[in-house]
From TrEMBL, chain B:
Residues 94-305 form the ABC transmembrane type-1 domain. It comes from the Bacteria. The keyword Cell membrane applies. This is Sugar ABC transporter permease. Keywords: Cell membrane, Membrane, Transmembrane, Transmembrane helix, Transport.
Length: 348, 314
């Protein structure tokens, strides 16, 4: 995390290839730590692996007999797909159950209740929750909170990401290290001082600004922008510089028009933070008309649910309304939600 | 600014004498500092200053006063820490979060690595699988808590399916099961994020390693333990660290799933206690001290994990 940004990155890239020997070297240097847990046995295998390449010819001859493709038999592939699909269905079941439960006139927790029963379907729960908490107002507040964060993240994140990737200035390495570090600063330590500062000292309780402030620029997004600009061909920038374009013009005419593909990723990862956030807006909004939907629904769950005719139905109806925008957005744009984008944003 | 494009392409820009000569006080392109200044100001205002302020509060007699009122907030040394360490509720909340971490962290690492390894090789149903495993992560905890309350209440679907095996009292109001139930919930909820981190790491593992293992006659399981696990070790260190930090941050789930840390404080988390003491009961100084102690524990655990997982590379 220390030192210059780019050298750090090149270290990471080669890491995968460099690691095996490093591992062997380490276990050799400190046998007392690694022996006994099977690691020395493993490092033996590593060195075996490194000696292997000369036997290339023998290997390719032996492979077709036993293996296909990545070394998996057809039966294994089918089994893996079935197990993974079953797991995914289990993961999705609570969401299905959320929708079913929100439509039940009478809550039916029996196993048959997991299937839609036409005689027990109603939209009353949605009307019911809407009469308790103003769903539209909640959605608007969540939207302002989320929109504010996305706006700040995109504008200031592009600038910072561009500066970190393309420009050379004093403090660049430090800024990059900060962006990585900030992602592991736990909110529990910031909760009290931020509350004191924002709600008490600045008087921003019950305001959208107060909600947005601690989340304003998403550090993961800054790094995603940086990684994106880093992988653009340098010639692009150099050619424009040779043509006499100033740095500002370079940003406006070269970098920004190219940023669109990564914008979707950034908006997605930034969206789920504030939209789903509960603790912070809960701390600083007491006025119901300013609360994001997550906060008003949580207050309903913890305070008034017990008095409703069908408490679960109403809670689940509210849950569907709160979950729908995030889930919908994710499903539509899921191909932008990739491991390489987000993994690099966290690890740098 | 005239530069030498070839030097750039060769990646030699750090050692380029051209650059060293032109380097000003703020570097060759001070505009970078200007572009980054909003972000730096944000980090200073929202992270750096509050961090210092939290420590300051924890050493003073701090309380909320009416706006504009001039109040004295004397330095009290370690008094707040003494209060915290003498409070059995605090100890219990730390024990609870330890139980949580002991269940959540190993389960998270094992499941996310296994699922990521399988997903990395999957060729069919990719979109469906992605949506399935990531959706809990992208959904608000407040929304999903509603379903879990429905599923796990005394009369809920889970207990009906379990029949006589269902715990009595039910999961979330049972002092033994409340914390494990929360730990399972959070594991399920966050798993997609860690799968994503592992997938990124797996894509950087050179394929030759697997080919070599296959030639050696190593089976799937052997390959997983001898190749995959060592190769993704930096990712494992990251997953351990992040799941520990997120776990220590536990608030929403005990607040909503178990009605404010119930039954009888059996699922009280330190952050929930900080909220109750600091904001509801006007003792932000004591709450800040709990926060500082919690962070020290998290750092300690993180350091131990790094030592044990051997992740010096991250």
């Amino acid at each position: 995390m220390s030192g210059d940004g780019t050298s750090e990155r090149s270290g990471r890239w080669s890491e995968g290839r460099v690691e095996p020997p490093a591992e062997g070297a380490r276990s050799g240097a400190r046998p007392e730590k690694l022996s006994g847990d099977g690691t020395s046995e493993r490092s033996g295998r590593w060195s075996e692996g490194r000696v292997e390449p000369p036997a290339e010819g023998a290997r390719s001859g032996a492979r077709p007999v036993k293996l296909s493709g990545d070394g998996t038999s057809r039966a294994q592939t089918v089994l893996r797909t079935v197990v993974l699909a079953a797991g995914a269905i289990a993961f999705l079941f609570p969401f299905y159950y959320m929708i079913i439960g929100s439509l039940q006139a009478e809550p039916d927790p029996t196993p048959t209740g997991a299937f839609p029963d036409p005689s027990n379907l109603t939209l009353d729960n949605y009307a019911d929750i809407n009469s308790r908490i103003d769903l539209l107002q909640g959605l608007v507040n969540s939207g302002i909170f989320t929109g504010g964060v996305i706006g700040c993240t995109v504008v200031f994140g592009v600038l910072a990401g561009y500066a970190l990737a393309v420009l050379q200035w004093r403090g660049r390495g430090l800024t990059f290290a900060l962006a990585l570090l900030v992602q592991v600063v736990p909110f529990q330590l910031l909760m009290i001082p931020l509350y004191v500062l924002i709600a008490r000292d600045y008087g921003l309780a019950d305001t959208h600004l107060g909600m947005i402030l601690p989340f304003a620029i998403n550090s993961t997004a800054v790094i995603v922008f940086r990684q994106y600009f880093l992988q653009l061909p340098r010639d692009l920038f150099d050619a424009a510089r040779v043509d006499g374009a100033g740095e500002l013009r370079l940003l406006r005419s070269v970098a920004l028009p190219l940023v669109r593909p990564v914008l979707v990723t950034v908006v997605l990862i930034t969206f789920i933070g504030p939209w789903n956030e509960f603790l912070w807006p809960f701390l600083i909004t007491k006025d119901a008309s300013k609360q994001p939907l997550a906060v008003s629904l949580a207050n309903y769950i913890s305070n008034v649910a017990a008095t409703a005719a069908n408490p679960f139905g109403a809670v689940l109806a509210g849950a569907v309304v709160l979950a729908a925008p995030a889930v919908g957005l994710f499903i539509v744009f899921q191909r932008y939600f990739t491991s390489s984008n987000i993994g690099s944003g966290v690890k740098g | 600014m005239t530069t030498v494009p070839a030097g750039h392409r060769a990646g030699a820009r750090y050692r380029s004498p051209v650059r060293r000569r032109r380097r000003g006080l703020l570097g060759r392109q001070p505009l970078g500092l200007l572009f980054s200044s909003p972000y730096l100001a944000f980090v200073l205002a929202v992270f750096a200053f509050p961090l210092g302020f939290a420590v300051w509060i924890s050493f003073h007699d701090y309380f909320f006063a009416a706006p504009g009122a001039e109040v004295d907030r004397p330095f009290v040394g370690l008094d707040n820490y003494r209060d915290v360490l003498g409070d059995p509720d605090v100890w219990r909340s730390f024990r609870n979060v330890a139980v949580f971490l002991l269940i959540n962290v190993p389960l998270t690492v094992a499941l996310s690595l296994l699922l990521a390894t399988a997903l990395n090789q999957a060729t069919r149903l990719r979109t469906f699988l992605r949506v399935g495993y990531y959706v809990p992560y992208v959904t608000a905890s407040v929304a999903v808590v509603g379903v879990w309350l429905f599923l796990f209440n005394s009369n809920g679907l889970v207990n009906r399916v379990l029949g006589p095996l269902a715990p009595d009292p039910s999961w979330l109001i049972n002092s033994t099961w409340a914390m494990p139930a929360i730990a399972l919930y959070v594991t399920w909820k966050q798993l997609g994020f860690y799968i994503l981190l592992y997938l990124a790491a797996l894509q950087n593992v050179p394929r030759e390693l697997y080919e070599v293992a296959a030639t050696d006659g190593a089976g799937k399981i052997r390959t997983f333990f001898s190749i995959t696990i060592p190769a993704v070790r930096p990712a494992t260190v990251l997953v351990l660290l992040l799941s520990t930090i997120i776990g220590a941050n536990l608030f929403t789930e005990p607040y909503l799933l178990t009605g404010g840390g119930g039954p009888n404080g059996a699922s009280m988390s330190p952050v929930l206690l900080m909220y109750q003491l600091g904001i509801e009961q006007n003792s932000p100084d004591v709450a800040a001290a709990i926060g500082v102690i919690l962070i020290v524990f998290v750092l300690l655990i993180g350091w131990l994990q790094r030592r044990l997982a051997g992740g010096d590379e991250t």
